[in-house]
Design a protein that fits this description.
Structural class: mainly alpha
Oligomer: single chain
Helix content: 55-70%
Radius of gyration: 20 Å
CATH architecture of the largest domain: Orthogonal Bundle
Number of strands: 0
């Protein structure tokens, strides 16, 4: 690498770091005033936090909010969930997609957790051995239960990051090193949980798939998508 190329590379890196820092600051400030309030965000136990994330998979948050507390009242622990009658659990999940499959998956996961002593593992490798725990849910357990600075990278967070910082390299976000590294960089802050929620809430309320509200977005001055849309 020539001296000129090295200087350009260093300058680009510095600019990206500054942009990342400004991204974090602006999203955090927006979240303080506009963040959504859901019962699972006030959960007392790791079980309650993880159940919230499991129920949110492929289901709108407002739908989950409608039965989350009822779910916990019926199944307050991994033990009670592992002993659930599958038909009864299906009935409670009837308003969400794939409710038959999800009922079976939740029982299988609860049974596996009970087999490991009633507590979820604290490493990604061990978590991903459990039924129903993929990359996203492993990250959710690590950040929500163990305080790790892991991103809740789904299609919604990916949309915000790509619009601001540029597109992914691969179709599947699970295997895209650029997007994975970027998402992890975003949540390298003291409160990684709220950093995740802030981006997800921005995606839900402002940076929507269709008709994003760029004029209301705190990131408009940073966003490549917004600059092209205007």
């Amino acid at each position: 690498m020539s001296e000129e190329q090295w200087c350009l590379s260093r300058e680009t890196l510095r600019d990206q770091c500054l942009k990342l820092q400004e991204f974090r600051t602006k999203v955090a400030s927006w979240y303080c005033s506009h963040g959504r309030d859901f019962p699972w965000r006030h959960a007392d136990t790791s079980y309650q936090r993880v159940i919230g994330e499991l129920l949110l998979q492929r289901t709108r948050a407002r739908v989950v909010a409608g039965f989350y507390l009822d779910f916990l009242a019926e199944y307050p622990s991994w033990e009670s969930l592992s002993r659930a009658n599958e038909k009864d659990l299906q009935g409670l999940l009837r308003n969400v997609g794939l409710w038959r499959r999800r009922a079976r998956s939740l029982i299988d996961l609860a049974s596996a957790v009970m087999d490991t002593g009633g507590q979820l593992p604290d490493t990604r490798a061990e978590l991903e051995k459990l039924p129903g725990i993929g990359q996203y849910m492993a990250s959710a357990v690590l950040v929500l239960c163990y305080g790790e600075r892991e991103p809740l990278l789904d299609v919604n967070m990916a949309r915000v990051l790509e619009r601001v910082f540029g597109p992914r390299q691969r179709a599947d976000i699970r295997y895209d090193p650029y997007l994975q590294d970027l998402a992890r960089s975003v949540v390298q802050v003291d409160n990684a949980v709220e950093a995740n929620w802030a981006v997800l809430d921005l995606a839900a309320g402002i940076c929507t798939i269709a008709h994003p509200k760029c004029h209301e977005c705190p990131l408009v001055c940073l966003c490549s998508f917004a600059s092209q849309a205007t």
